[in-house]
Design brief:
- Helix content is 33%, strand content 15%.
- It has 396 residues and is α/β, with parallel strands linked by helices.
- It has 2 domains: 167 residues, Rossmann fold (3-Layer(aba) Sandwich), CATH 3.40.50; 203 residues, Rossmann fold (3-Layer(aba) Sandwich), CATH 3.40.50.
- The strands form 3 sheets. It has a 6-stranded parallel β-sheet. A 6-stranded parallel β-sheet has the order 9-8-7-13-14-15, sandwiched between helices.
- It is elongated, with a radius of gyration of 23 Å.
């Protein structure tokens, strides 16, 4: 559970409050927001502060600009989307800091009003955690609130450095995220099952090892399974795998066994002649993958086996698809597993960009106990790492 102060533990009335939000939202070619989830998740904190008469100063990053202004990464579309959702005017500045901005906040801005600064990553000091830039941002406010869990694993100026200059507390989203993930690690209802997919073992090395000390069952799907199958001596054809992770996969199989954890790997695979939506495909046992074909996802028997295990679970963590769900022809396994988790009466937590995309594709929004807004941050938390954006906040 979060042992840090939150916005409810301090007096914000009439104060200038600088809020780090995560408005790193997808935009289309016309720079319209195509998914406003992250903006909606920030509303409880924004509305609370505005309702208490604070001057609300928002800051965020968007995309990966190269420490300079790039028009396609301006936060203007996010500001317009926030106006619609909040139902009130949001003043957007075209710089991260200026004397004009400071003067406006100090002398013209009224209590309960909302402003948003320009993309933090336009300034080279952001990613460098430059103390001068952090101090500059801090000069705009009396208090700092971190509500950007998705950036909490970054030791950036607006996330970590700024806490050296202002009283710093968590927003509602930050608290919700940390509490949900802490419950997984500290007090899960059992059986506790983790379902991990995606293409790379290397992306989940530490989290697999850490979870093998926490879970009762670890289900593996997606591209990472071929590295594990290779470690067990199977022919995997042209399936993706990481040669430098085969030894690690072997060690994890042994660790699961020594910890008494049920490690579930595919017994059959959906394979295709080539990586294409319209390729020839077939369902084969893991000992029958053709040398010139590649795996596109877990097979029919495996899918049913995983679904049955999910049904027995009381706590479930899911990160990563079971196959190439972007192609409808190969999406069945991910859809079935996702549906089983969504329909479960267990405590269900999901996280990761591809996981969120699958939830949206299969129209399962609102069917999970908690869907994490921070893919990288949630994985690092589950690895047992301290998150800079959480560590710097004031203790209760």
């Amino acid at each position: 559970m979060l042992n840090k102060k939150t916005v409810e533990d301090i007096d914000v009335s009439g104060k200038r409050v600088l809020v780090r939000v995560d408005f790193n939202v997808p935009l289309d070619a016309d720079l319209n927001v195509t998914d406003n989830t992250r903006i909606r998740l920030s509303l409880p904190t924004i509305n609370y502060l505005a309702g208490k008469g604070a001057k609300v100063i928002l800051m965020s990053h968007l995309g990966r600009p190269k420490d300079a202004v790039e028009e396609k990464y301006r936060l203007t579309p996010a500001a317009k989307e926030l106006e619609k959702l909040a139902g009130k005017t949001v003043r957007k500045f075209d710089e991260t800091f200026s004397d004009e901005i400071k003067n406006y906040i100090d002398h013209e801005m009224k209590p309960s009003e909302i402003v948003i600064l320009e993309n933090l990553r336009f300034h080279p000091g952001e990613k460098k955690n430059d103390p001068e830039f952090a101090q500059m941002l801090a000069s705009l406010a009396d208090l700092y609130v971190d509500d950007a869990f998705g950036a909490a694993h970054r030791a950036h100026a607006s996330v970590a450095g700024i806490a050296s200059y202002l009283p710093s507390v968590a927003g509602f989203l930050m608290k919700k995220e940390v509490d949900a993930l802490s419950n997984l690690l500290e007090n899960p209802a059992r059986p506790f099952t983790a379902v991990l997919g995606g293409s790379k073992v290397s992306d989940k090395i530490t989290v697999i090892k850490n979870l093998l000390g926490k879970v009762d069952c670890l289900i593996l799907g997606g591209g990472m399974t071929y590295t594990f199958l290779k470690a067990k001596g199977y022919e995997i054809g042209k399936s993706i795998f990481e040669e430098d992770q085969v030894d690690y996969a072997t060690r994890m199989v042994k660790l699961a066994d020594s910890n008494g954890v049920k490690l579930m790997l595919p017994v059959d695979i959906l394979v295709a002649a080539e990586f294409s939506e319209n390729s020839d495909c077939r369902n084969v046992g893991i000992d029958s993958i053709p040398p010139d074909w590649e795996g596109m996802g877990i097979g029919e028997k495996t899918t049913e086996m995983y679904v049955q295990e999910i049904k027995k679970s009381k706590t479930i963590f899911w990160n990563g698809p079971m196959g190439v769900f972007e192609f409808d022809r190969f999406a069945g396994s991910t859809k079935a597993v996702a549906g089983a988790i969504a329909e479960s009466s267990a405590i269900t937590v999901a996280g990761g960009g591809d996981t969120l995309a699958a939830i949206k594709k299969f129209k399962l929004e609102g069917r999970f106990t908690h869907v994490s807004s921070g893919g990288g941050a949630s994985m690092e938390f589950l690895e047992g790492k301290a998150l800079p954006g959480v560590e710097v906040l004031e203790d209760k």
